[in-house]
Amino acid sequence: MENQLKISHDNQEKKDYKISWSKEKFKEMESTLNGYWAEDIWIGAESPIKDKEKTSNILRFNHVSYIIKTELKFAIYTKIEKHEWAWISVFGNGTIKDVLEIFQENKLNENASIIDLPLNNWVEKCKAYICRTNKYSQTMMSHSIDKYGAYRSYQKEDQRVYSLILIYKFLESFYDTRDEYEKDVWDMNKIKPNNNSRERYLDFTELKGSWLFHPTRQFIKYHLATKSVGTCYSKLLYIRRFNEFLIARHLQKTAQQLNRGLIIDYINFIQSLKVSYNAQHHCLSYLKEFLELCYRENWLNIPNGQLIYVDDFPKKKRSFKPNYIPDEVVIQIYQHIDKVSSPVYGRMFLIQMQVGCRVSDLRYLKFECLTQTSKSQYILQYWNSKQSKQHSIPANDDLVSLIRIQQEEVRNKLGENYPYLFPSVRKTNQAKSKVVSSVAYSRAIKKLIYDNDIKDNNGKKWVFSSHQCRHSVATSMINDGVPAHIVQRYLGHDSPTMTQNYAHIHDQTLRKEIEKYHESRVVNFQGETAELDETTLSSSDDLEWFKKNVQGRALEHGYCARPKVLGDCDIPGFDGCYNCPHWRTNKNFLPVLEDTLKRTNNVLQKAENCGWQLQINKNTPIRDNLEKVIKSLVEDND
After folding, report:
1. Which pLDDT score is estimated for 428?
2. Which of 46, 204, 301, 360 could form a disulfide with 3 if both were Cys (CB 3.0 to 4.6 A apart)?
3. DSSP of 166-233, one letter per residue?
4. Does some domain include residue 232?
5. Number of domains in the chain
6. For position 365, which CATH number holds?
7. Which pairing describes strands 140-145 and 41-43: parallel, antiparallel, or unpaired?
8. Are 359 and 470 in contact (CB under 8 A)?
9. In the chain, how many H helices and how many E strands?
10. What is the pLDDT of residues 333-386, one digit of tens each?
């Protein structure tokens, strides 16, 4: 109860906090504005910005108070300097000029700041001005293509209103002297300067007034130390969904009613939303993680007991729908790739289809991403953001050529010192330029597919997502006979299970693998014959049964015949297979098995000399089974 009172008190403090003008922060503004930017009249053609588009427009700040014009100049200058606003957008279309006129029409007293008036009031004044001057426009803008391959349109706010809101929020953030973690909205670019997520802000505003407000911020702060911004954004999103449920039940004021019955009500609430399996699972898994961490760290006074159980989670219906891009679609995209809106997007697609990296990693590919080995072979290096480690893969001549072309283009536009391979196609200034947008990239490829009527063999227009490229690389490698453990290494997966989820085995490939499987006598881990019924290959129906009921996963030392109904294999590493009844092998794998036996004997000899009983107990059954298997296969070979 004491904790609960403390949280309520903290919430009240945050609610009462008011951002206001300060002399110290204002002096910081003044010291930043020098030369051209300190003038009350900005002449577009005389701007000190290099590579700007020529414009004859003029921005006048001299008809408002000193405080307000300094705030406006500082906000606009900072937006331009950080490349959040393009130079031509500020001067070219008259939007900012109209915003300045709004402040001129609605003069405050000489000592007033823009943030002294609530944002809603400024928005109303802005709309009144642009309606009175017949400048107001709400246009329908096509932004994306839906799952049916058709354009989706959104109603976009007038650009003047949008720009005014951005200026106001920028000033509000600038005057807010609190630590970023104390604010209601966290700017991830300040907390994590190298943030490469699409999500820049984590907004806790909806939780204010709820008992979830304080512990949720603690929870997200805890995970930001080890998790990506995108993952933390997702966790916050699903806790906010739990808050929506509490509001509907009028339970957001106190945590005292948190019990098993409430959780059961929430499970029913989730099911009523008719959302996807993943969304339902996240609703419960993130809440479970949140509550357990709150109890452990004493962020909340909650019951000492489990509130969410494994049985509460929705049961996933196994989906065998592949997520790779079919060959016929890939061929059509390649044929039209030169028609994409920017050559940068075309090169990104071609590189992703070879490398198989995530688009978040592709965007931040370093300019000097290629290295050479002592044998003059090229290696591509990139940062695997999901595993937070450097990843390296071999690069063929086609990949090297694509990267060299992109490097030359970046070098010509931005110079030798630009750090990334893919700068934003909308930014051409060198200093701190943004990398390419993942949304813009996906949108460009979707539009290419839409405009050129690219369809699969079923006549359905293809809908692209950048992650399909990763699945396509895995599927292509598996069907070209690349062992699963090599595919796992190439894609940078932590586990074979993840690779298995990515790779789809084509019917033709599976048939060939089964035929290879029957080339010689197949044995189990005891060296005993283990053959499949020959009718497995007799019809398409039998083949489909085999795909759905047996893992059929190629290993470096044989095959896994574990039935699907038993779920994913939980044996760590390949050595565990030598004691597994589902492992199958034949004479084709004799070199690997003999090498493994040799290494196992060396380990056992070392363990016996040192008296390492645990290693002896672990490796003796492996040695015995390997000897049986090898003896059986050698006799069969003879």
Report:
1. 46
2. 301
3. HHHHHHHHHH--S-GGGSSEEEHHHH-TT--SS--EEE-GGGTTSTTHHHHHHHHHHHHTTS-HHHHH
4. yes
5. 4
6. 1.10.443.10
7. unpaired
8. no
9. 24, 12
10. 999 999 999 999 999 999 999 999 999 899 989 999 999 888 788 999 998 887
Helix (H) or strand (E) holding 78: helix 66-81
Q: Residue 442: name the closest of 469, 402, 461, 473 by CA.
A: 469
| Rounded Cα gap, residues 353 and 346, in angstroms | 11
For the record, the structure tokens of 37 come out as 């930017």
Residue 551 and residue 464 share a domain:
no
Q: Which residues contact 116 (CB under 8 A, 6 or more apart)?
A: 20, 21, 108
How many Å is the maximal CA-CA distance in the chain? 101
Residue 469 and residue 338 share a domain: yes
Handedness of CA 401, 405, 407, 411 (dihedral sign): positive
Return the beta strands (E) in 44-175 as ranges. Answer: 58-60, 140-145, 151-155
Is 30 in a helix, a strand, or coil? helix
With vertex at residue 504, the alpha carbon angle to CA 500 and CA 510, rounded to the nearest 5 degrees, is: 105
State how far the Cα of 85 lies from the Cα of 163, in Å rounded to an integer: 10
* Secondary structure of 38-70 in HEC code, one letter for each residue: HCCEEEHHHCCCCCCCCCCCEEECCCCCHHHHH
Residues 281 and 383 in one domain: no
The β-bridge partners of 553 are: 560
278 contact partners, CB below 8 Å, separation of at least 6:
none
pLDDT < 70 regions, the chain: 1-16, 50-56, 136-155, 196, 252-253, 304-305, 317-321, 426-433, 503-523, 525, 527, 529-555, 564-568, 572-574, 636-638
- 462 DSSP 8-state letter: P
Q: Which pTM does this prediction carry?
A: 0.62
Cα–Cα nearest to 348, from 431, 409, 392, 391: 409
Domain assignment present for residue 11? The answer is no
Look up residue 114 and give its amino acid. I
For 519-524, the CB contacts below 8 A with 24+ separation are 519/586, 519/588, 520/586, 520/587, 520/588, 520/633, 520/636, 520/637, 521/586, 521/587, 521/633, 521/636, 522/584, 522/585, 522/586, 523/584, 523/585, 523/586, 523/629, 523/632, 523/633, 524/581, 524/583, 524/584
Residue 113: predicted pLDDT: 94
Angle at 491 (CA atoms; ends 432, 318), nearest 5 degrees: 120
d(CA 230, CA 198): 7
One-letter amino acid for residue 219 of the chain: F
Residue 337 placed within a domain? yes
Rg for the chain, CA atoms, rounded: 31
Clarify whether residues 296 and 356 are in a common domain.
no
Residue 296 CB partners (closer than 8 Å, separation 6+):
none
Mean pLDDT over the full length of the chain: 81
Owning domain of residue 238: 178-317
